[in-house]
Amino acid sequence: PGVAGAGEWPWHAAILEKDNAVYVCGASLIDETWVLTAAHCVEKFLGSIQQLKVRLGEHDVSTTDEPTEHEERGVAQVVVHPNFDNKTLMNDLALVRLEKAARRRSNIDIVCVPSDQLPLTRNKTCYVTGWGKQTEDSNHSVVLKEIPVPLWENQACEKALRTSFGARFTLPPTAVCAGAEGRDACDGDGGGPLVCEDRGRWFQVGIVSFGVGCGRADVPGVYTRVSFYQNWLHDVVIQNRRNKP
């Protein structure tokens, strides 16, 4: 898997525990005051959101000697999708509101939320980013990694996953699959973005949700399909703006 260039994926964010900076999950900046992540990452913090912080613009977690500094924000609110099921990981997404808006600059920026009209063809190469493991047996990465992953059609993905989850497994339309042998999200990448380019703009197509191992042959990773939730995302973000005093 490739190493990302500094500031190459400026929407990629990290959710950390505030006191000891322990890494919780990946996330992505979709609005100046909101990051998008997986519900399974933050559900357990719903009663203690003050324990969390969000780091923006990070690249190499092992050093502070970088040309562009990261920024950190406290967490003001966590909104888990109301239909999230932590047994099946259906509707695995959540929004995290920053205490203070992000300042957009070279290494901190917003990724687009796609509509259903975004053309996603089979085998289109998209990218997943994160500080997760390179392989099932390796350590977590200290530098943000970028992995090119081909998209799968849902029918083929469902068939591939039945070898692990049984013949009754059904893949919901709220999921999207991507990956190839040796190219996959892995442990520590959860909540992070799967992005695809269309006419010069980057759209977040998926949120890292679950998989079977990492990068195994013929077993793609499963992501929450962001376009399915565009109305919910819009409503939460816009409603919050309206409620501001």
From TrEMBL:
Per the database record, which ranges form the Peptidase S1 domain?
1-238
Which compartments does it reside in?
Answer: Secreted
Provide this UniProt record's keywords sorted from A to Z. Disulfide bond, Secreted
Q: Name one Pfam family in it.
A: Trypsin
Q: What's a single GO MF annotation on this record?
A: serine-type endopeptidase activity
Which biological processes are named by the entry's GO terms? proteolysis
What Gene Ontology terms describe where this protein resides (cellular component)? extracellular region
Main location class: secreted
PANTHER family, sorted: ACROSIN-RELATED, HYALIN
Official protein name in the record: Phenoloxidase-activating factor 2
Query: Which species does this protein come from?
Result: Graphocephala atropunctata
